[in-house]
Amino acid sequence: MSELIIKNLHVNIGDKEILKGLDLTIKQGEIHAIMGPNGTGKSTLAYTLMGHPNYTVTQGEVHFKGRNILELEPDERSREGIFLAFQYPVAIPGVTVANFLRTALNARRRAVNADDKGMPIPEFRKMLKEKMELLKMDQAFAGRYLNDGFSGGEKKRAEILQMAALRPEIAVLDETDSGLDIDALRIVAEGVNALSGPELGVLVITHYQRLLNYIKPQFVHIMLDGRIVESGGPDLALHLEEQGYDWVREKYEEIV
Ligand code: ADP
Ligand code: MG
Prior knowledge:
It is a single chain. The longest helix is centred in the middle third of the chain and has 16 residues, at about 95-110. The strands form three sheets. A six-stranded mixed β-sheet has the order 6-9-10-3-11-12, sandwiched between helices. It has a four-stranded antiparallel β-sheet with strand order 2-1-4-5. The chain is globular and about 60 Å long. Helix 3 (about 95-110) runs parallel beside helix 5 and helix 5 (about 150-165) packs parallel to helix 6. The chain has eight helices and twelve strands. Strand 11 and strand 12 (about 225-230) form a beta hairpin. It is an alpha/beta fold. The chain has a domain at about 5-90 and about 170-255: Rossmann fold, CATH 3.40.50.300. Bound molecules: adenosine-5'-diphosphate and magnesium ion (MG).
C-alpha cells in the first residue's frame, strides 16, 4: 500500500515562513480533508506538494513509496502516482481534453515500462467513454480545447476526468476559497465519491465548512497558521460548520 508521509514540513515564500512544521500521512484508500481559515497556508501545502518553484522547503520531508518526492520534478511526481489538481488550471488552446489525457496517460505508462507503445486508441476511447459516463459528463467535452473558455465548474470537471483517467494512488485537490464556488465543490465531491475506493487516497483542501454535505472524509484536519492543530473524524467538520473557526483560534491563540 502506498502512503504519502509529510514530516515536519516548513515552507517559505520568499523570506516569509508559511508552513511551520506540518505533519500528515495519507494512505491509499483514505479520504482526508484539511480545512482552515484563509491565509493559513492550505494552498501553500498543495503548491509545495506539486513542486511549484516559488515555494521553498526549508525543513522537513515528504515521502512516497520510499522516495523523497521533494527531490522529484512535478512530472516525475505525477508518474509516481501522485495527482495534484490545480486551483487555477491553465488553458491549452489547440490541445483537446482527449489528446491531453492520452499524452499524460501514456507518459505515466512509459514511467512504468520504458518500452510501452501507449494505450491503443480504441482502448483509450472506450476507457474515456466509460470514465465520462461514470462522472456523468457529456461526451462532447473530450473534444474541447483544455480549459479554453471553460467555466469554473468545467475546469473542475476536467481535473476530475484527469484523475479518473490517470488513476493516481494519491490525489490532492485544492479548492477555491470563494463561497461562490459551491458548484465546483459539488463537482469535485461527486467525482471523488465516484472514484474513491481502496486504490485511491485523497486529500481535499478547502476553506468551505459545509464540505460534509457533499463528501465523506474519514479524517478531518484543521489547519491554523501553517500547522495542523486538530485532527479527527467527520464530526470535526460538523463542529466547524456549527461553530466556525473562532474556537480553534481561541484554543491556539498562543501560537498565532
Ligand atoms: P490559504 O490557501 O490557506 O488561504 P495560502 O497558502 O494561499 O493560504 O497563503 C498563506 C499565506 O501566504 C498568506 O498569509 C498569504 O498572504 C501568503 N502568501 C501567499 N502567496 C504569497 C506570495 N506570493 N508572496 C508573499 N506571501 C504570500
Ligand atoms: Mg487557498
